[in-house]
Amino acid sequence: MRTDTPQTIRRADYQPLAWTVTDVDLHFALDPAATLVRSRLTLKRNPRAPAGPLVLLGDELELVSLQIDGRTPAAARITDTRIEVDLDGDTATADIVTRIAPAKNTALSGLYTSRGGFFTQCEAEGFRRITWFPDRPDAMARYTVTLEADKASYPVLLSNGNLVGHGELADGRHFARWQDPFPKPSYLFALVAADLAVNERRITTMSGREVLLQIWTETAALERTGHAMESLVRAIRWDEERFGLELDLERFMIVAVSDFNMGAMENKGLNIFNSKLLLATPDTATDVDYESIEAVVAHEYFHNWTGNRVTCRDWFQLTLKEGLTVFRDQEFTADMLAAEGGDSARAVKRIDDVRVLRAAQFPEDAGPMAHPIRPDSYQEINNFYTATVYEKGAEVIRMLQTLLGRDGFRKGMDLYFARHDGQAVTCDDFVAAMADANGRDLTQFLRWYSRPGTPRLSASGRYDAAAQTYTLTLAQRSAGAADEALLIPVAVGLLGADGRDLPLTLAGATAPGTRLLELDAAEQTWTFTGVAERPVLSLLRGFSAPVIADLDEDDATLAFRMAHDGDPFNRWDAAQRFMERTVLGLAADAAAGRPLATPEAFVAAFGALLADDALDPAFHAQALALPGESYLLERMTPADPAALRTALMHLLRDLGKRFAADWLDRHLDCRVAGDYRYHPRDVGLRALGNLCLRYLCAAGELAGFAAAERQFAQAGNMSERLGALGALVHSAAPQRDSALAAFHAHYATDTLVLDKWFALQAGAWRWDPAAAPTLARVRQLLAHPAFAATNPNKVYALLGGYFRANPGEFHSPDGHAFWAEQIVALNAINPQVAARMARALERWRSFTPALQASMRRALETVAASEGLSPDVAEIVGKALA
């Protein structure tokens, strides 16, 4: 593990490589303790770069030999992480032999072993842990890879591209040779050597080529790959139809691995997946798992063009591939859901995406790790795989589609690929293609790429009854200079007294219900004519821009929009705003020691929403669910987790009791007959039924406990089983411990499902003040035989479930001291995982003074520990700065 002082890398300092690599020939003699890697690099002087030496990067490598054009270079400058060689001429060949120890690689970056097999993870800088190389995204080359291993132990040998040779060797060994015809950066290199089974299918692409699709996993898990295969086929078809993009290799492979830092990786033609985002059956995976698998399979496949064929010039451009591909997978999922469930299913998907943005990215924008979607500097690139780069990056791409229209966006994509196929490019190149394809100046829009923080949008309206006009004034405020306003697309509607959309006439043109306004100044005004009655404003429909809307709406207006807003997203958002106002008011009372009483106006509006039988079940479940606890903490000044938890428990109890009969009736109405199917209607019914149980159990209703216990015992799928168990665990139900024991007994040997069991307990609320803190249970579970600190999934489930998903229990001096203890331990095992867990305290300055003191002590403890990795050092250092 590197323990050097983190160095700041700046985008402004980018220089092209003096020497490029055109071809790479790799030979691996695979051995867990000592793998020998032979690398031949065909080098070419870069005419577009200043003269300089050949620079090769390495990390924890044993250099066996280095030759340039068949000779050992006399003046090579060699350190533990860098080799520099001065070269003459315009071409050269480098032969390098390196020895590595995959079995000791607990960081899971580079080449490592997992459950008896070899796997790789090279993004962002893992390839330099395999062999010496100019390991940066703009070093694009064609790869030929030969894998050699013991055949009995590793019968399957995979790498990128097409299989061009295989055969037997002496001493029970065998080999396979792979060739990738497309140039790629080293971060997209992959190899797998293991004992695996395969689910395969042949399909015909839009140009009539037959291609082979393969999903590889352990034999026992093969039956769980069916949904992933169907998702892959749908993704291939969708990309052909929506963007005209076709699979370009003879085969496309996906491999499941249990030990993996990320969710999945888009290596060219050989995607490597965390098992939890690939394997599913109704008995082991929830509806959310099914949707996530479909989305991630699509995401990694879509990278074949947006990331692989056209890649990033440097890591500052990460959102070029990730923000764009997240947008593409969001659109894919929305289209798949809408094909089965109509526009309501599409709206629910949009709500899901915005929930994630508000819960994860908005807090990031307000903390010490705040950065633009294209950062200007970093210390450790692994720390910049963030919600800002991904989710906010996707929202920026969505705004482009909103501004240009779907057809205009497609024209921009077509031009982008025509110009840059096979290149490493920048975000500016992408926006330039969009601008040129549509004849539009997007210079102002580019400010979204360099502006940190979440912009705020305010609105004020004035109605003139005599003139029948409505004048709307919008103003924006963000971290930029006052004269550098962003271009913000704002979709608006006006509601009449009957709740229906009023026609919008602006400058003589009439829109039926929603009008897109382009706010490109600090403040702008629009006047709508022919407005026959005083309207209610529906602002930012469909969440047309990633901003915080500061709206001066009273309770009556929110209740009206909850009941009538014609835009599904804004109807949900009105409910969330009313809930947020109510919860934060209760939290303020709790912090001040005042008695808690739910406002009757909110109860009435909530009851009307609950009673609305016309709503689609999935939307109903979204609209009735309280805002997330982490999001609400960000809305408190100062953040007080104990007061907020008290308020949430009061509101859940109160709403559960007041509407107990309605919840029970609604729960019965949500039963889904027949075999499990992943379908928007069924998914919505299960989600709403589980929410009913959550309210009933929170209220302590005996009928609710009985209903949850019955559903848990009779469940025919994981969504129903886990939903019932969650309702019991997140309450004072006497059945909670026996249900947890029964769940464990049923899935004792299923490591993926036990992650759900760990996470549920780590996130449990304490409804009985006399009960032991959740921390005591978490400490016990650390010693459970199924928990392993070397497995990222286990860490994310148990420690992530406690640190990130349970603020009401975690935020205490004991919890913070435990955090410091675990971060130091994880840092020695896997710095990337440790850094992700370390971010739980980055917003410490926003909390109450007493909690700030406790968090600071914990951060200082970690900062002072020996052997701190650059990954963790950057997170903790920026938090304390």
TrEMBL record:
GO terms for molecular function: alanyl aminopeptidase activity; metallopeptidase activity; zinc ion binding. Residues 105-188 form the Aminopeptidase N-like N-terminal domain. Gene3D superfamilies: 2.60.40.1840, 3.30.2010.30, Neutral Protease Domain 2, Peptidase M1, alanyl aminopeptidase, C-terminal domain, tricorn interacting facor f3 domain. The keyword RNA-binding does not apply. It catalyses: Release of an N-terminal amino acid, Xaa-|-Yaa- from a peptide, amide or arylamide. Xaa is preferably Ala, but may be most amino acids including Pro (slow action). When a terminal hydrophobic residue is followed by a prolyl residue, the two may be released as an intact Xaa-Pro dipeptide. CDD domains: M1_APN. Residues 555-881 form the Peptidase M1 alanyl aminopeptidase C-terminal domain. Residues 453-550 form the Peptidase M1 alanyl aminopeptidase Ig-like fold domain. Transmembrane segments: none annotated. It comes from the Bacteria. Its EC number is 3.4.11.2. Keywords: Aminopeptidase, Hydrolase, Metal-binding, Metalloprotease, Protease, Zinc. Belongs to the peptidase M1 family. This is Aminopeptidase N.
